[in-house]
Task: inverse folding
């Protein structure tokens, strides 16, 4: 089995948009997952939630100043390296950019990172629905931030009326066509958008986490859809690649394993996509046999259509399409093969 890489989620957004509020919500609702946090200033982060997870010693403060200025590639890499060590047992790392950090630079650092223990977990841009117009005027670079985002969290919708929210949505969609968007109050996104909860049995003994009061505001969670797809027959590499390359707008994450009918030992393809980013890892099938299992998560996606499109990829003769498979291998993330890439680059 391939080593589990720790996803690194980048959270960006202008001053006061609600990044820290969202981070605290994630910490309070992390369902057993261990969260590593990198922020400039811990002042408002719910340290209790981290303390409960026993992660205090692995927290890394950047001190004063903007994250992008404070770290060069090796600086952030070193920090991520510390947090992603298998011994740290962390399931997800959230990097909160300061109000003035350039998300594009962070994204570059992430994509260029050679740390084998991490993978890109998405760039989330938190947008203040009330202040959107004012922020846009003051910071025209907001357009660029939205363009590179994998997910837009349109926050503070409780403070804007429906017309105003619709208007902001329209502008965001213009700047970031096809980028999934969730509407939130107090940053209450569903943590499953970012990371997977830990299976109960991996907790071991009853932890503080089990005793803690959880945030039961389920109904306030931003809505998203999740589609599970399985197939005992292999998928045609060509058709599956076409599906990946024209993923429906709104599809934020795809994760799982794919059987493309390939022969040989390491023919299980583990797949992670977030936004436009695609990462494929190769490993052996476990004893139980081969089977495609995918979970697709998005906001405003047509689940029936996604399932139909995937079903149409099923091809019992998939293994015969060696050329198609070779093309798919471009996505492979291995040191001696062409590494994973951002779809924009290709
Ligand atoms: N009404 C309302 N207030 C919110 C919401 N989200 C956050 N706030 C408030 O907005 C203020 C700013 O939120 P923060 O989470 O600190 O924002 P931030 O993006 O981390 O801010 P910086 O770190 O300064 O960039 C706080 O007073 C929050 O309580 C929301 O959805 N609705």
Result:
């Amino acid at each position: 089995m391939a080593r589990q890489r720790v996803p690194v989620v980048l959270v960006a957004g202008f001053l006061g948009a609600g990044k820290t509020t969202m981070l605290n919500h994630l910490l309070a609702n992390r369902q057993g997952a261990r969260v590593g946090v990198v922020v400039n200033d811990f002042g408002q982060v719910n340290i209790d939630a981290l303390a409960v997870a026993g992660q205090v010693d692995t927290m890394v403060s950047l001190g004063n100043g903007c994250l992008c200025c404070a770290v060069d590639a090796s600086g952030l890499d070193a920090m991520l390296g510390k947090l992603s060590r298998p011994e740290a047992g962390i399931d997800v790392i959230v990097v909160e950019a300061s109000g003035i950090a350039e998300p594009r630079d962070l994204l570059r650092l992430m994509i260029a990172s050679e740390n084998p223990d991490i993978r890109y977990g998405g760039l989330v841009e938190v947008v203040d629905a009330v202040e959107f117009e004012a922020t846009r005027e003051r910071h025209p670079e907001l357009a660029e931030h939205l363009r590179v985002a994998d997910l837009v969290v349109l926050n503070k919708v409780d403070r804007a009326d429906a017309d105003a929210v619709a208007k902001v949505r329209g502008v965001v969609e213009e700047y970031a066509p096809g980028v999934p968007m969730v509407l939130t109050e107090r940053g209450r996104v569903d943590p499953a958008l970012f990371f997977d909860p830990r299976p109960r049995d991996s907790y071991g003994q009853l932890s503080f986490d089990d005793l803690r009061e959880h945030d039961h505001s389920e109904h306030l969670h931003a809505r998203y859809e999740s589609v599970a797809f399985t197939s005992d027959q292999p998928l045609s590499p060509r058709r599956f690649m076409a599906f990946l390359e024209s993923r429906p707008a709104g599809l934020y994450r795809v994760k799982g394993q794919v059987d493309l009918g390939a022969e040989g030992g390491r023919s299980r393809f583990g797949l992670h996509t977030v936004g436009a980013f695609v990462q494929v890892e190769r490993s052996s099938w476990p004893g139980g046999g081969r089977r495609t299992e995918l979970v697709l998560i998005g906001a405003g996606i047509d689940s029936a259509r996604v399932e139909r499109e995937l079903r149409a990829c099923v091809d019992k003769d998939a293994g015969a399409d060696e050329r198609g498979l070779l093309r798919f291998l471009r996505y492979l993330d291995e040191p001696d093969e062409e590494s994973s890439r951002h779809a924009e680059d290709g």
